[in-house]
């Protein structure tokens, strides 16, 4: 929750500009001026001026039909930010789970905004999901919760299953999770229950023990981890 002190230093014009960026980021298509005006609730004049400013700065681009989309400078900024994220040394944990399950295993982390997939240990499978590094995790798809583990089918695509469990946070005000991402044809309910869930439970138990010893054990609230954004070219064949 935003405090009064934090609100005191915020600039409305920046909030409004970022709301337009968020609309374009969360949309699965380009949007024109009228659509962005209606979705943002701002006047058409203000929306146009903000869009024009961000277009000049390379944060947004516009096609010949007048539809806006995220610009190259936005992607460069996102790439640089991702490369500078302080990622805890969780790769040995991811690698251990990936070796046991022979599926790709991601580390999801949320400090502000939406959860983000920031690290991965790959499987040895011939057919896997293309890299989800940098993907935002959203509440989408058909979801079931079994024994504190969230199973989502269709958040990315009907062909993809994600299995996620919360893990001890590595700092204050953040949430973390382990996420198994695999083609649905390999993730039967029987396999999830008998193989995947026990491995995730044991991994979290070990991580919790380590963090309890250091006094940093935190129980984060449930995080839905369903990566998206790679609907085309979904599978990668080794």
Explain this structure to me?
It is a single chain. α3 (33-40) crosses α4 (44-56) and α6 runs antiparallel to α7 (189-213). A hairpin with a 7-residue loop joins β9 (160-167) and β10 (175-183). The protein has two domains: 4-81, Winged helix-like DNA-binding domain superfamily/Winged helix DNA-binding domain (Arc Repressor Mutant, subunit A); 86-237, Beta-Lactamase, CATH 3.30.450.40. The chain is of the alpha+beta class and 238 residues long. It is built from seven helices and eleven strands.
CATH architecture of the largest domain: 2-Layer Sandwich
Order of helices and strands: HHEHHEEHHEEEEEEEHE
CATH superfamily of the largest domain: GAF domain
Q: Unreliable runs, pLDDT <50, ≥5 residues?
A: 210-238
The N- and C-terminal alpha carbons lie at a distance of 45 Å
CATH topology name of the largest domain, in short, is: Beta-Lactamase
Q: Over the alpha carbons, how many angstroms does the gyration radius reach?
A: 20 Å
How confident is the prediction overall: mean pLDDT? 78
Q: How many structural domains can be distinguished in the coordinates?
A: 2
Number of helices: 7
What percentage of residues falls in helices of 4 or more residues?
25-40%
Oligomer: single chain
Structural class from helices and strands?
alpha+beta
**How many runs of DSSP E, i.e. beta strands?**
11
Strand content: 15-25%
Largest sheet: 6 strands, antiparallel
Strands side by side in the biggest sheet: 5-4-10-9-8-7
């Amino acid at each position: 929750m935003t405090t009064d002190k934090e609100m005191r230093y915020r600039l409305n014009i920046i909030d409004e500009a970022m709301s337009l960026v968020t609309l374009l980021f969360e949309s699965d298509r380009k949007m024109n001026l009228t659509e962005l005006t209606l979705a943002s609730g701002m006047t058409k004049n203000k929306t146009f001026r903000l869009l024009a400013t961000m277009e000049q700065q390379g944060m947004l681009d516009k096609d010949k039909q007048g539809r806006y989309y995220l610009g190259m400078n936005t992607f460069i900024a996102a790439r640089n930010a991702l490369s500078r994220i302080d990622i805890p040394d969780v790769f040995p944990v991811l690698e251990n789970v990936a070796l046991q399950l022979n599926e790709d295993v991601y580390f999801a982390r949320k400090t502000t905004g939406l959860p983000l997939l920031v690290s991965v240990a790959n499987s040895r499978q011939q057919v896997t999901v293309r890299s989800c590094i940098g993907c935002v995790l959203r509440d989408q798809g058909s979801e079931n919760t079994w024994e504190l583990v969230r199973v989502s089918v269709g958040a990315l695509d009907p062909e993809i299953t994600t299995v996620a469990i919360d893990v001890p946070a590595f700092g204050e005000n953040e949430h973390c999770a382990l996420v198994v991402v695999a083609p649905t044809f390999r993730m039967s309910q029987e396999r999830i229950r008998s193989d995947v869930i026990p491995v995730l439970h044991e991994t979290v138990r070990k991580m919790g023990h380590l963090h309890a010893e250091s006094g940093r054990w935190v129980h984060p609230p449930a995080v839905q981890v369903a990566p998206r954004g790679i609907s085309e070219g979904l599978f990668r064949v080794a």
